[in-house]
Amino acid sequence: ASDQALYYLLEYWPEFLCCILASMPLKRLAEKLFSKRSVEPSSSPVLRIGAIIAAALVFALSYIRLEYGGFNPFIYFQF
């Protein structure tokens, strides 16, 4: 581990966390949980709306990182 690796880990920890969560079979685990409770997994609003909320959160995180991550001078100061 170098100083650069530690810098990237501390700077981009939300992205790393999203990647770790996205690599896990969360949908299958949720379907198994709902099937044990005798609820139809495909009709569960938690699974349908949960995926939409997760995608919106990843999009918002990406937008915030893009907007505030770099130096964005006012365009008219370049002239």
Explain what the structure shows:
The structure is a single chain. This protein has four helices and no strands. By secondary structure, it is mainly α. The model has no long low-confidence stretch (mean pLDDT 75). The longest helix has 25 residues, at 45-69. The protein has helices at 3-11, 13-22, 26-36, 45-69.
Q: How many strands?
A: 0
Order of helices and strands: HHHH
CA-atom Rg in angstroms: 19 Å
Put simply, the count of helices is 4
Helix content: 55-70%
Average pLDDT rating: 75
Structural shape: elongated
> CA-to-CA gap between the ends?
43 Å
Biggest sheet architecture: none
Q: Regions with pLDDT < 50 over 5+ consecutive residues?
A: none
Secondary structure topology:
Layout: H1 3-11, H2 13-22, H3 26-36, H4 45-69
Provide a short characterization of the protein structure.
With about 80 residues, this protein is an all-alpha fold. About 70% of the residues lie in helices and about 0% in strands.
List keywords for this structure.
70% helix, elongated, 79 residues, mainly alpha, 4 helices
